[in-house]
Amino acid sequence: MLYYMYLSQHKWRRNKGDISMRFAIIEDTQEDCMLLLTLLKQYMAHYDFTSEFSLFTSGEDFLANVQPDLYDLCFMDIFMDGMNGVQTAEALRQIDPSCLVIFLTTSPDFFADGFRLRAWRYLLKPITPEQLAEALPECIEQINLSARQLTVIVKRSAVTLPFSQIHYVISCNRSIEIHGENAVLTTGKQLTFAELTAPLRKDFRFIEVSKGIVVNLDFAKVLERNDLLMKNGDRLPISRPRISEVSEALVRFQFMKR
Questions:
Q1: How far apart are the C-alpha atoms of 92 and 101, rounded to whole Å?
Q2: H or E element, residue 53
Q3: CA-to-CA distance for 66 and 96, rounded, in angstroms?
Q4: Element (H, E) at 85
Q5: Across the strands, what pairs with 206?
Q6: Does 71 or 12 have the greater pLDDT score?
Q7: What is the pTM of this model?
Q8: Is 117 exposed, middle or buried (CB count within 10 Å of its CB: 0-12, 13-18, 19+)?
Q9: Which of 26, 118, 213, 218 would you label with 69, given CA atoms 20 to 30 Å apart?
Q10: Residue 56: helix, strand or coil by DSSP?
């Protein structure tokens, strides 16, 4: 097994401190792997944050090491001995659905599989600087979105929550509930609902569906009459004046995510 990490020391200029962007390259041809690594390091040197690169020679080796939220972006060779890139990406989706995937290939024959697996891009080998310059900016912006955080006060302690883990926020009497995956945080109203959710509403993923309810469309499933059905089964009421706006936003968001 070949597994090692390169670390380029830069600092991300954000208020929330230093952040790394973590890449995995799954490629069984050493020449292609080192070419991509060199081009990536050259390209990422233009950004002012830490970049980490992990290299694997097979899908099996990669899956033995991957964990949820470990990598931001994987460059996946399609034609490999053992598990091919499509099979590896399918397994990755079960472990870490949010990890972005760029397929590396010498043939466009698997483009349909890439669409099904929500691959970010296909890059035809040999990889060129121009291909990376075209593919990476939007990808980096997507990773940037997933790093955004909201800080709230819960029982006099500051709690920091990634935007990507917030399903919805709802105003309840004298408190505000923040719903996540099998968890609910309740915060007192040191801030008004509008003040607390203002950072979320600046993010295209979030929309106010009715007074006192802001939803992350990433976790919304479908509109059913006057309710928004969430993927976890929760139903959230939509105010009548907002039904058309929410419907259009949900369709647009789901289309963009494909």
A1: 9
A2: strand 50-56
A3: 9
A4: helix 85-95
A5: 216
A6: 71
A7: 0.61
A8: middle
A9: 213
A10: strand
